[in-house]
Amino acid sequence: MDPFEFIMVLVSIIMGLGIANLLRGVIRSLRPDTRSAPSLVHSIWVAWVFVMHVAVWGGRWLMAERVVWTFGDLLGFLLVPILLFALSELAFPPERAQTDLQGYYYRIRGRFFGVAAALMLSMAWSSISLFGFAVLDGRTLSFASVAPVFVVLALVPHRRLHLATSILVALATLWLYSALTVRALPPAPPILLAQTNTFPATGGPIHITPFAGAGVQLEYQGIVIHVDPWSRGDYSDAKPANLILITDTPGDHLDPDLIRQLSTSGTLVIVPADPASARDEGGAQRLQQLDGAEVMNNDERRDLDFPREGAPDVTIESVAMYDLIPGAPFHARGEGNGYVVTLGGVRIYFSGVTECTPEVQAIRGLDIAFMPMNLPNGRMPPSAAAECVKALDPDVVYPYHYRELPIDDFVEALRGGPIEVRLHDWYPS
Predict the structure, then answer these.
(1) Are residues 137 and 262 in the same domain?
(2) What is the domain count for the chain?
(3) Which residue, 337, 83, 343, 95, is CA-closest to 208?
(4) β-bridge partners, 216
(5) Which of 104, 228, 398, 417 lies 20 to 30 Å from 335 when distance is taken between CA atoms?
(6) What is the pLDDT of residues 316-338, one digit of tens each?
(7) Cα–Cα distance measured from residue 395 to residue 377, given in angstroms and rounded to the nearest whole number
(8) Count of CB atoms within 10 A of residue 359's CB?
(9) Residue 403 sits in which domain range?
(10) 192 domain-assigned
(11) pLDDT digits over 24-66, tens only?
């Protein structure tokens, strides 16, 4: 189990208990031995709480590919289900109580809508915490804007106001999450046809094999280069490496076991930091497991001459890889590298996890670019990534590191232009 699966087990338990509360209350109110008078406004809000359970539980799965979880992410992820469970507890009177539901609704409204207001604010905060400020769209803003309405309902017992508001909120919720379903399960993005994983170079083609995460294999005239190999991909047919480039130190970029599996006695492994300068303890421990790895700092160049007759020249240039927009997790300048690999006269840029920094924009003469998007906190959304690619102007771009976000906007922004977009499933199930 990865961290997301562990978290979703807890979320599913909490929300399952909430739905059970609602179903138990509905069934109890329908029993012939229960003297509970029905109420339209109460029924609408019970249905609303049920719909919110289903919608929120489904929305949690949009985070299935997230690798790094901060405390704030976990708190926001769990707080929304907990508040929904609280609403389900308040939705019906205690089991032994004999009361009309409308009277109960107006007696409990202060607590019910107080929790509902907290729920809306928590949903807005959770969206920003998990996806960044790029999600400040109508859906996120609607969560925050409904909170004051719920405060008014908590304070004012006017019955027509409650009935009218319940109908409006219910209809808006159904419309909002119907639209979310369309966005969360989009049709397959337009994929440009006749794409091959080769690129012409002097002396023969370069063979490009994408794996998972940011893992890529290059093969040219018998030289094999791996970038960020990650064991989530199927490396059963991968070739032993002459060179392995590591852009960053988290486990989805730096996988010591797989690096050893791909290495031979002559493999050169290049990393962006030594254990003492790693940004966290996990990265330091992974770096300590690599014997003989060599560090390249930002803005360095190495001309490699492999000890094999007829081996092509390979040039590696390290490019600073860092974040501009603050927020956790944060990649500071100097902690990681992008790399420009030149072989057979072809320049290939592996960006790693970076924004479109001045150092990235200064790269010239690229033929192929691997470009990230969907970094936390609103960094590099699809539109910004597409603009960065246009500035770099490679012949071919591979979008990667997009995780749970659809990349339709990225593809459409480049459609009809001179840059070929090659798509790959970087996160196979």
Answers:
(1) no
(2) 2
(3) 343
(4) 210, 227
(5) 398
(6) 999 999 988 877 767 788 889 99
(7) 29
(8) 17
(9) 198-421
(10) no
(11) 988 888 877 666 667 899 999 999 999 989 888 877 776 665 5
